[in-house]
Amino acid sequence: MFRKYLTMLAAVAFLVGLAGRAHATTTLKIGTLAPQDSPWGKEFKKWAKQVSDETNGELQLDFQWNAQAGDEVLMVQKIRSGQLDGAAVTAIGLAQTGVTDILLFQLPGMFSNWAKLDTVRSALKDDLAKQFEAKGFSILGWGDVGAAKTMTVGFQVHHPSDMQGKGVFFIAGDPVEPKIYSAIGGITPKSLSINEILPALTTGAINVLVVPPLAAEQLQWASRVTDINTQTIAFAIGAFIMSTPRLQALPPKLREVMMSHGAEMSDKLQSTIRNADAAAYARMKATKKTYDPTDAERHEWAKVFTKVCRGLRGTVFSPAMFDRVVALAAPPFED
Questions:
Q1: What pLDDT score does 23 carry?
Q2: Angle at 302 between CA 297 and CA 307, to 5 degrees
Q3: What's the CA gap between 102 and 92, in Å, rounded?
Q4: Up-side HSE of residue 90: CA atoms within 13 Å toward CB?
Q5: In whole numbers, what is the pLDDT of the chain averaged over residues?
Q6: What is the C-alpha separation between 14 and 44, in angstroms, rounded?
Q7: Phi, psi at residue 36, to the nearest 5°?
Q8: Per the domain annotation, does 231 fall within a domain?
Q9: Domain contains 335
Q10: In terms of Cα–Cα distance, which of 75, 121, 123, 76 is closest to 98?
Q11: What is the rounded distance in angstroms from the CA atom of residue 204 to the CA atom of residue 221?
């Protein structure tokens, strides 16, 4: 009788263990610079809910907002080490994977409009995805940040020389922007993380921003800006990346839900972010001084951008990919 009782207890324990494993929750830790109430954050939260609902709670997305997981350099390092499973990053973060060709998409002067960027990105995204996979990362969806404008505090920038002696910065890990300042000359840029920019604006340590209006609003930089050059310098992009080994380790059902809803979220965010960036720009124009560069001033900037872009071919950018992007984008490079 006692032996039967032990056998029954063992059977019950086994079944309970199976049930516990069947409903075990897998939580993916995801880093992002975005505030949770930003347009990006709102879509990320919807994505997390869809994934949780469709998997009956078996898969949860735990977002670490506002750079809580560190800047983009650190987030990519954490994905490699297993401390994070994925991250929503800009092109600067994407380049930290080792795929520096991605920075071609936000080179100054490379694209004349979003449509041209879309055409080129669509043509090259499969090749780029293979490059990321070779580095151990999977792209779950491409995204955009906005159309970057030159914003300043207390002065205007018409000519490249107007930047000399001003408080400029570049995001840690960006190999391109320092080259632009070097080409202009007379500039000592500061390397800052995202969280260091607002304090630096407040103290006056920096007084120049080259960012999309939406980012300036969401990160509270816009209130310090007084003047905006209406020329779009570059189009800032990004993507949602995940550790390929971590993604492949998910059960097929969970992986499919994660990827399908990630693609849907990415498609929706494209129009959402571009519209939100345009609306943010309209709001800023209503309270800031805006000015249009003359054709002569545009030519001055184009010469700087051309020099920098061509100088990065073969160093930051592979010659083959650089030549493909230039052929497709047909930028107005100046000799």
A1: 60
A2: 135
A3: 8
A4: 22
A5: 92
A6: 38
A7: -70, -20
A8: yes
A9: no
A10: 76
A11: 12
Helix (H) or strand (E) holding 282: helix 252-287
What are the residues facing 63 on neighbouring strands?
30
In total, how many domains does the chain have?
A: 1
pLDDT digits (tens, 9 = 90+) for 182-241: 999 999 999 999 889 999 999 999 999 999 999 999 999 999 999 999 999 999 999 999
The residue assigned the tokens 């994070």 is: 84
| pLDDT(308) > 50 | yes
For tokens 């080129």, the residue is 120
Asked, for residue 121, whether it belongs to a domain, the answer is yes
- 104, 176 Cβ separation under 8 angstroms: no
* C-alpha span between 309 and 106 (Å, rounded): 11
Domain range holding 26?
A: 2-329
Nearest to 218 by CA among 23, 59, 61, 67: 67
Half-sphere exposure (CA, 13 Å, Cβ side) for 197? 28
- Identify the DSSP state of 96: T
Contacts of 144 (CB under 8 A, 6+ apart): 114, 235, 236, 237, 238, 269, 270, 273, 274, 277
- Give the position of tokens 């007379």: 186
Q: Count CB atoms within 10 A of the CB of residue 156.
A: 16
Q: Are 211 and 149 within 8 A, CB to CB?
A: yes
Q: What is the CATH number of the domain that holds 215?
A: 3.40.190.170
Instruction: Locate 99 and state its tokens.
Output: 């795929």
Distance of CA 179 to the CA centre of its chain: 20
Q: Which amino acid would we find at residue 76? A: V
DSSP helix/strand/coil, 290: strand
pLDDT at 173: 87
Structure token pair of residue 45:
């939260």
pLDDT of residue 249: 96
C-alpha to C-alpha distance for 165 and 300, rounded to whole angstroms: 18
Confidence of residue 20 (pLDDT cuts 50, 70, 90): very low
Q: Is residue 211 part of a domain?
A: yes
Residue with tokens 């059902």: 253
Instruction: Using CA atoms of 251, 256, 258, 262 in order, give the dihedral in degrees to the nearest 10.
Output: 160
